[in-house]
Amino acid sequence: MSLREEKLLRRVTLASVGVAILLIALKLVAAISTNAISMMASLIDSTMDLFASLVTLFAVRIALQPPDEDHRFGHGKAEPLAALAQATFIAGSGAFLLLEAVQRLVRPQAIETVDWGIAVMVISMIATAFLVLFQRHVIRVTQSPAIKADAAHYGSDFLINAATIAALLLAHQGIGWIDPIFGASVGGFILLSAWFVGRKAMDQLMDREVLDGSEARIHAIAVSHPRVEAADHIRTRMAGRIMIIQLYIYLQNDLDLAHAHVIGDEVAEKIQEIFPGADILIHEEPFHGTNAPSITKSETGPSIQEIV
């Protein structure tokens, strides 16, 4: 990871924490003064974001540490672990909000000082918009899963804040049931967000194959080398932002060991061009009838021209 990427990750996580603290302070006062479940929903959402941002800040600091004697593959999985912790907290917040909304439906309560609540929501939307724009820039540069999860929270915040304004206005006009209905809707949305964030985190922690056509692309790149007869045992997984690729290549029998490793390095360089920053491990095998893979370079599969 470049020095620029490290600085961006640190800056965006600190910015995320700062924005979350500001929004919580404003929304806490507004929730108390308005007594609105919609405002409470927004407060819970911002509190959730602060927790997520703190977890992300901690995880990114760990993930940026270089490999050491105890962690030879680096610390990249700190990020999906952080995302899983966020998903757990998000789910708990969503469940609490759903229960509170049901209670408000059964026992309605009056909403007060709507103007103050709307002012807080407008300030929140402006701060959130600037933060999300910064986060999206960092994601384009770093592809950090922890920042992606954090950005998803704040992106949903913008919509929630806008909907909160509408709910406050409608409730103030006498449509009292809209406030708890909105709170329940936000709770359901939060639970759904928790599911998606948690599932992506579990995919990385369980070393799920990268399911974006990578295997076919890697195979096409490998067999495009003139001395490679076939390739198989292709495996891919993600460790934070780093893609890990392993494969066997089958070489012509007349090659010595030194030449075989040179070819392996050349194949790895070609793969790096398509998957920058990937950690690539290639095992070279002689090509003969007893160990030949079922698909060789002369059989079906996309060509290197189709891949690039």
TrEMBL record:
Superkingdom, taxonomy of origin: Bacteria
Domain (Cation efflux protein transmembrane): residue spans on this chain: 14-206
GTP-binding keyword on record: no
Transmembrane segments: 12-33, 39-60, 81-102, 114-134, 154-175, 181-198
GO biological process, one term: intracellular zinc ion homeostasis
Keyword field: Cell membrane, Ion transport, Iron, Iron transport, Membrane, Transmembrane, Transmembrane helix, Transport, Zinc, Zinc transport
Compartment(s) where it occurs, according to its Swiss-Prot or TrEMBL record: Membrane
Membrane topology: Multi-pass membrane protein
Gene Ontology molecular function: any one: cadmium ion transmembrane transporter activity
Chief site of localization: membrane
Any single Gene Ontology cellular-component annotation: plasma membrane
PANTHER family in alphabetical order: CATION-EFFLUX PUMP FIEF, MITOCHONDRIAL METAL TRANSPORTER 1-RELATED
Family label: Belongs to the cation diffusion facilitator (CDF) transporter (TC 2.A.4) family. FieF subfamily.
The protein, known as: Cation diffusion facilitator family transporter
Annotated organism of origin: Halothiobacillus neapolitanus (strain ATCC 23641 / DSM 15147 / CIP 104769 / NCIMB 8539 / c2)
Lineage, highest ranks first: Bacteria, Pseudomonadati, Pseudomonadota, Gammaproteobacteria, Chromatiales
